Amino acid sequence: MSDIEYLLFKGCKERDAKKQKETFIFYFKRFLAICERYTKDEEEAQDIVQESFISIFNKIDGFTWHGKNSFEKWMKRIVVNAAINNYNKKKKNTHISIDDYENSFIETAEESSCSVFEIENLKPEHLIQFNICEEELIASINNLPEHFKVVFNMHVIDGYSHKEISEVLKISEKTSTTRLFRARKLIQTNIVTMIKERGVVYEGK
Amino acid sequence: MKENEFDDLIQSKLSDYSSKTNVSEENIWENISKSITYNSSIIGFIVKPWFYIPILSIIGLTVFLISNTSNSNQSKIEIQKICNDSLHKEKIDIQKDSIITPKINSAIEVKVEEKKDKEPKVKDIQITEEKNVKETIEVIENQKKATILEQEPPVQPIEQKVEPRIIKKEVQITDTVIKTKRMRKR
């Protein structure tokens, strides 16, 4: 994996057209998955990936190899930044009041028939036990309200700190923490609901 | 589930997750390839800066030399024309070096030889400033005029013709004059 990664990086650095295409094909679906977590629109996600790859190939001289996974991490960062920029642009054009934020959370929570006990007792092994696959997790993340989803993606999956999130999204660190807490609860609620919908007896033990 | 446990679980499951989309990668790659720079065997060689910088330098130098040469020719023709049309039709020989390097901040020596001995001699003119050819010629012409004026012979005074006086007295007085003359005779 790291050998392939280095060869691809070297080829891209030398502006080798073949290697550039190989890099694109190798990482395309992985990067598209990242963008799909930030936007529900499939074509928009493809556009973000396209822009990201153009940036990657044009800015390759600014990257220095630091060993295994460094090239992939650098590329991922560019993709995530492009996705966040896209989110920020969309946010400027759509104005949602704070009340709507709160209501979206309360309504989702009220709709679920899960008890707090059931949610709190959800364990990692339950996901394996009840065959909760990646697609279902992605779906439950995508069902989150936009402002929760972005914070959750950035912090939990893409490794941003609350400070970085607050700077990028121009919110306070406290807001970031609160949104993450609520996003977690909503996803856990969704998972418990999915398990219960399968007709499996889930006692949260 | 603890927060950390939950986060780790999600992270491990989704960090390397690939999209299950059926979108054509080729179409997107076509768009990307139009916007990026890449090397083929020849293009790659040309794109290197050490290749195109000397070439650009040579082209620039050639253009500079050609433009300078054409300017000097033009100046030379202009000088010839002015000289032929000049009042005294003198042969004015301007040194080649002086014309080719008009912009060099050095002295331009212009020699003006006289054609005939009897015509006034215009002294050599030293121009120490950067001047164009037209100005140089003007300086020569002015110098010539100045010399001519200096050596022109002084203007000799012409005798003024004295018009005959009209004696109005004789015309107006008639009888009295006759009488007076008669009395004198007596």
Secondary-structure content class of chain A: mainly alpha
Q: What structural class do the secondary elements of chain B suggest?
A: mainly alpha
Largest sheet of chain A: none
The percent range for helix content of chain B is 55-70%
- Tally of separate helices of chain A: 11
Portion in strands of chain B: 5-15%
What is the strand tally of chain A? 0
- Widest beta sheet: strand line-up of chain B: 1-2-3
Q: Number of helical runs of chain B? A: 8
Bulk shape of chain A: globular
**How many strand elements of chain B?**
3
Instruction: Give the SSE string of chain B.
Output: HHHHEHEEHHH
> Averaged pLDDT of chain B, please?
60
Q: Which residue ranges of chain A are poorly predicted, with pLDDT under 50 across at least 5 consecutive positions? A: none
Oligomer: heterodimer
Distance between the termini of chain A: 39 Å
Overall pLDDT score of chain A: 84
C-alpha termini separation of chain B: 175 Å
Description:
The complex is a heterodimer of chains A (205) and B (186). Chain A has 205 residues and is mainly α. Chain A has helices at residues 2-13, 17-38, 42-58, 70-93, 98-111, 116-120, 124-129, 134-142, 146-157, 162-169, 173-197. Chain A contains eleven helices and no strands. In chain A, helix 2 crosses helix 4, helix 8 packs across helix 11 (173-197) and helix 10 crosses helix 11. Chain B has 186 residues and is mainly alpha-helical. In chain B, strands 1-2-3 form a three-stranded antiparallel β-sheet. Chain B is rod-shaped, with a radius of gyration of 48 Å. The termini of chain B are far apart. Residues 73-92 and 94-130 of chain B have low confidence and may be disordered. Classes of the chains: A mainly alpha (205), B mainly alpha (186). Chain A binds chain B through residues 14-17, 20-21, 24-25, 28-30, 32-33, 36-37, 42, 46, 49-50, 53-54, 57-58, 120-124, 127, 134-135, 137-138, 141, 155-157, 184, 187-188, and chain B through 1, 3, 5-11, 13-21, 23, 25, 28-29, 31-33, 35-40, 44, 47.
